[in-house]
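Q: Study each token:
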Amino acid sequence: MKKTAILICFLAVASAWAADKPKPDQLIPYKETPQGELRLHIFNPKNQTPKKKAPAIVFFFGGGWNSGSPSQFYAQSKHLAQRGMVAIAAEYRTKKGHGTDPRACVMDAKSAMRWVRAHAGQLGIDPNRIAASGGSAGGHLAAATATLEKFDEPGEDVSVSCRPQALALFNPVFDNGEKGYGYDRVESYWQDFSPMHNLKKGAPPTIVFLGTKDDLIPVETAEEYKAVMEANGGRCDLHLYKDQSHGFFNKAKYKETLAETDQFFVSLGWLKPLKK
């Protein structure tokens, strides 16, 4: 009953926020590449100042490393900013937009996380409470920042950690092996590229959302990821949504998945519980 009451309260608040089209408060360049400048789309909590040490989350859009837009996570960003987090939707290079391969996507994701941590003081962010999140291939990038040792941008200061302290993953690409997603594009380096095959002890607490009828990410893959994390002493909350297909989190189950994401950060102590 308690969880039901929280969800009802949350849905009412989320419906009111969704009425307006979200717009970021700031667009800040974080990286210059041979293919052009990349920016962070930042949503700030009310009365945010550099003196504050708010938790933060960096979102990576989906699109198969081929295309996509940071606006995919504007609604989630607005909600979490309203709740007290600095929410950031990151640009990164894609095949259609920049002519790059999936390795560039991971390099940019790592660069975004490092830039946010290095500039935490001016953004009013707690550098020890930065989460990564994303959907589909963006979920892969978020998980990659937490698990992969390779694919750092040459010349970048790797003494600044790119690793998040939490992960929120929406129908994420976990497995890039022969039976996983995108193997034909990453075959020559898949073992270093696949989060499933690079999980180690110390991976951050993670929440995962997946539809049972996802035609790209089998339920068994998510269950295996959860099992490996837990075998290494980690936390992985897996939420399966019956009969939902790929991308459901921004469609039929947007409010429900956002409510669970909110509660996940409450459980970590990053957000205060919603008032009933």
Remarks:
- The CA atoms of residues 117 and 127 lie 5 Å apart.
